[in-house]
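[09:14] KT: can someone run the structure on this one? pasting the chain below
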Amino acid sequence: MKAFFGSMTGRVFLVLLLGIVASAALTQWLAVGERTRALERYRDFHALERAEQLITTADVLPEASRPTYLRMANRGTVRLEATDVPMAGALPPTEFSATLQQRLGEGYKLGPLAEHPAACDLPRKSNNIFAPTQWRGTCETMNVRLHDGQVLKLSVLPPRAPPPSAHSELLTMLPFLLSIAALAYLVTRMTVRPLKQLAQAAKDLGNDINHAPVVLSGAAEIRQASAAFNAMQARIRQHIMQRTQMLAAITHDLQTPLTRLRLRLEKVGDAELQQRLIDDLSAMQQMVKEGLDLARSMDTTETMQALDLDALLDSVCSDATDGGQQVELRGRAAMALMGRPLAIRRCLVNLIDNAVKYGHYANVTVERMVGAARIRIRDGGPGIDQDQMARVFEPFYRIETSRSRESGGTGLGLTIARNIAEQHGANVMLSNHADGGLEVTLIVPEYYAGA
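[09:31] RB: done, structure tokens below
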């Protein structure tokens, strides 16, 4: 759940859901308020009609019949009853009493009382959580003097509470809330899906520059973003191709003059000078060779296919052993990976050669992880300082203080290995082992046939 709300989908869903619920709650509150005010106006008008009816009826009845009538009129929310309170204690007229006085005429005298009915302060029971908790309509008492001088007390009380409902309001609103949540989730999926597709396309682009372009679909803005992404991919592919071709051409064209130099060096009479020049020329040829390898490591035209990781490691380690290198392989991954066979092989060969060259031997250990395999290559060399860990992946960078100068090399081996690993979605990490020596960790993702 935490991961969901931490994602873009969860955040957009939460904002939409809260926004819609808040908007619906505000609309419901305004609607209930307006309905309550209309009900109050209707009840006040009804109370006005009822009070006028009770007073005029009591006025026309004979004095002897009034007690019986008043017992019947002392019911409901508008009540008329006998009182001993004199008219002199009345307060200034209220809006209700003034309107009633106007309707009754000059023959009647009304005077509001300070007495406040207890029912006015009682909380109202309502099934609606947005309804007010107290009656805000007319609720008061007043004295009424009839034509014959008798004083009666008129009480206007709040309406009776409605009967309890079998279903609570929250239960009634549950389908509404569920429909809002479903709508918010649907809108979120429609909004975030193009972003996920672009993110996946960017990931695929990092693994394979020749990956198929993004399909132009969806809203106009999404199609515009997808078209811009495809144009960017084409420009990057063109730049990489031009750089690769230029590097390959330069290194290839250097082979001819270097070969002529080697032939001419055979004619140098000084044996010591001749050997020194030949050594320098060999270093230059090695640099050209690794420059070609670097250019090939950026080439992604080789076909991707499923590879047996254990068989590939066994083949690479066996070839290294046959070549006189001290290489030992332990463990099994029992998984397949999707990659370019020659490129993956070049990556593993470079890592093992680097370990043997600087650390005299290579102990290769492979183990299965969740969705990936971890390959660890440990050597017996002096290791690398922590501040130099990142720089060793830079082209032509060599650490002369911690690695042997006599080992040779151009500083392109790790650069080539990292380029190939990144093209296959793999990670290359370096660490100094506690018992000495450098340990290179290569984590490669598992290939799923159904993916």
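[09:33] KT: thanks! Confidence is low (pLDDT under 50) at residues 401-406.
[09:34] RB: yep, looked fine to me
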